[in-house]
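Email to the structure team, subject: Abortive infection protein-like C-terminal domain-containing protein model.

Hi all, the expression group asked for a predicted structure before they design truncation constructs. Nothing fancy, just the tokens so they can compare against earlier work. One-line instruction: predict Abortive infection protein-like C-terminal domain-containing protein, return tokens.
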Amino acid sequence: MTGDKDEYDKVLSHAHTVVEHAADHGLPSNDPLRQIPNAAKKMASQLRELRNRFGTGHGRPVVHEITAEVVEACVHGALVWVRWALARLQTVLLGAVEPLVHDLRGGLFSGGVLAARLDAANIPGLEEPEQRRLGVAVGQRSARETFNVRIEGIHACADNPERWPDAYRQGVVEGLFLNEDGQVEARPLISPDCAADVLQHHSAPERVLADLRDVLSAASWSVLFQQEHPAVITAMREQLPRLPGLGQQPWTDIINDLEARALFGPR
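Reply from the structure team: attached below.
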């Protein structure tokens, strides 16, 4: 974020960073697709100096002559960068986290829509809290039996593991077992299978499941889960061999906790 009194160069650099990720992810800094926008930014950064030299502000006793050359340099120096930034803006808006999370809670997702928006979001470039928040929203929507979201936001994690960071994966697992009200809720044909998918390439699956166990132990059960928990537990046992080795014991611990709570009645 920038403030009203921030320096011109700071505002320009922040705006450039926001739209820059619209280029193909993972491009090296010396790639032409990064060098050309950077050159445009350097042109735009010189406008401050031209404004200070030829502008009428700051109580100057003498105003310099503004020639056609000065006008042309200012106009074209600004337009080159602005045109590049505006062309990228739609991609940035497409991947904005807040609207995407909102739409995952109730919007429609035809084939390819979520994939495009997740790609535009540049998940590896997000801060970890945002990665996790997005993962939770995808997990919760998938648990509500939205087929396209499940394919493009969960099963896709196995196809290109480096594009899906740990925090996103952890969020997905949490969303598969907790609803938007913070209650335990899972679907037998979806939640265990999808959790096993996203944990395959997590660097610390045992930590994810230990954290999930703590959250599930403190949460109440939704009415739906009270009805479906036997089938969910059975499905979790069936998925146990698919869990990474370090994740199998905490997964078993969660199963045991759920069975114990079922005997004494969920809160």
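The mean pLDDT is 88. Residues 8-93 form one domain. Ping us if the truncation boundaries need rechecking.
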